[in-house]
Amino acid sequence: MTRRGIVSSMVVMLGVGLSIAALSYLVVRGHGFSAAGHPGRLETRVARAARSLAIPADARRRANPGSSSPERLRAGLAHFADHCAVCHGNDGRGQTEMGRGLYPKPPDMTLPATLQLTDGELFYIIEHGVPFTGMPAWGDGRAESETASWHLVQFIRHLPQLSAEELALMRRLNPTGPGTPAMDPDDFLNGAPLPPAPVHKGHDQ
Fold this sequence. Notes:
It is a single chain. The chain is globular, with a radius of gyration of 18 Å. The chain starts with a helix and ends in a 16-residue tail after the last helix. The longest helix is centred in the first third of the chain and has 29 residues. It has ten helices and no strands. By secondary structure, the chain is mostly helical.
């Protein structure tokens, strides 16, 4: 790395560190250590600025390497239902029991604050997570993981147009609790019969 690159990286790291420190101060001052509240407008701005600083410029400019297709959308739907809906809800609005208990709450991914992010930003957040939130890093360095994350990027773009039929399908793919696992997304994508419709409403969004 060049001297200029090292300096730039140090500036970014310092900015992220200061943003996190400011955010931590605002959270503790406003809410103590309770996760029951909602971040204020200033906290939200600081957090988004820190997230933006943490995403490298080249990652932000990345485009989804696969063209949009029904098959990729179906794969993203299945993966989202199995891995993401417990916090984000099948419809991406975050109104789940788990999501309401997090601080900050999961964003409503049908709104511009999420949909205006670039494909590269969405991919980076899925792969690397968001520190100091409930969003984990799903990337593991394998090509299969990256492919699944790009499928999710396409599905997130589709969330505002989600149909009642797609929501019903996702409810049948949601994990249903210990001892009653959801259908494996790969089995679903390979044409295996769907499991019976669940009677619970844990992900019924």
